[in-house]
């Protein structure tokens, strides 16, 4: 019987979803991984994750996306949630100002618990509710610029920019990893050069002993 190895991907990237309760994290996840949306979804309890494999610049990338409750009392042990994460989608609800104001709090949490090189995308979700908008695109853009984050408005309901948000995160992560791999290669090829050998040549001339040092 043929044995199928489970390594059908080139890279596995862990991405965490964060943001206040009710902003739409779980629906963003279900839209991206199963193309599903639920208008009456319940608050997440504990931690869930789902995966989707996709192509990024010709490489097969498996995105493992973790979702937890925005509500403090249901939050999983934070450090375990962030461990190994290389990307984060920080979500707020464009109709709820408070969820946007809390973005800075979530950024602090990322800084405290996640890797400092983590790629962060901020998503203003529920863009379909433009008539109830409480956060302008301009405000979000300036925050994103100040904090050096990528930013998109999304709608899990209308499947708007969900694909793009994850694609952008994955591409950014991939570029960082490639750059790191290249600089490691470069460092290896510099330090990996054959070490110079010192050859001491005694030249008994009339001037006494002379020493020539060669290194390759
Ligand atoms: N109109 C609209 N409603 C949305 C959208 N995304 C999510 N919702 C609704 O918002 C509510 C909360 O969505 P969830 O995905 O459960 O929110 P969450 O961020 O996972 O919440 P917690 O698990 O409590 O942290 C649900 O009623 C969803 O149907 C969207 O893009 N547009
Ligand atoms: Mg949830």
Automatic annotation (TrEMBL):
One Gene Ontology MF term: GTP binding
CDD domains, per database record: Rab11_like (cd01868)
Keyword Nucleotide-binding: yes
Disordered: region residues: 187-216
GO biological process: protein transport
Keyword list, A-Z: GTP-binding, Lipoprotein, Membrane, Nucleotide-binding, Prenylation, Protein transport, Transport
Coiled-coil ranges per UniProt: none
Protein location: Endomembrane system
Superkingdom field: Eukaryota
NCBIfam families xrefs: small_GTP
Family indicated by similarity: Belongs to the small GTPase superfamily. Rab family.
Name of the molecule in the record: Ras-related protein Rab2BV-like
Organism (species): Durio zibethinus (Durian)
């Amino acid at each position: 019987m043929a044995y199928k190895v489970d390594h059908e991907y080139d890279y596995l990237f862990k991405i965490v979803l964060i943001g206040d309760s009710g902003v739409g994290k779980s629906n963003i996840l279900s839209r991206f991984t199963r193309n599903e949306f639920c208008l009456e979804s319940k608050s997440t309890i504990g931690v869930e994750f789902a995966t989707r494999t996709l192509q990024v610049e010709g490489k097969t990338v498996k995105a493992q996306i973790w979702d937890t409750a925005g509500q403090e009392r249901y939050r999983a042990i934070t450090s375990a949630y962030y461990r190994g994460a290389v990307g984060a989608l920080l979500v707020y609800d464009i109709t709820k100002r408070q969820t946007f104001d809390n973005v800075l709090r979530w950024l602090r949490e990322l800084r405290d618990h996640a890797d400092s090189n983590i790629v962060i995308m901020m998503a203003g979700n529920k863009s379909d509710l433009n008539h109830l908008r409480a956060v302008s695109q301009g405000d979000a853009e300036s925050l994103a610029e100040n904090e050096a984050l990528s930013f998109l408005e999304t709608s899990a309901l209308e499947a708007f920019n969900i694909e793009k948000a994850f694609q952008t995160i994955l591409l950014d992560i991939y570029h960082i990893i490639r750059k790191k791999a290249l600089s490691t290669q470069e460092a290896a090829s510099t330090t990996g050069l054959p070490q110079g050998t010192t050859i001491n040549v005694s030249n008994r001339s009339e001037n006494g002993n002379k020493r020539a040092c060669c290194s390759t």
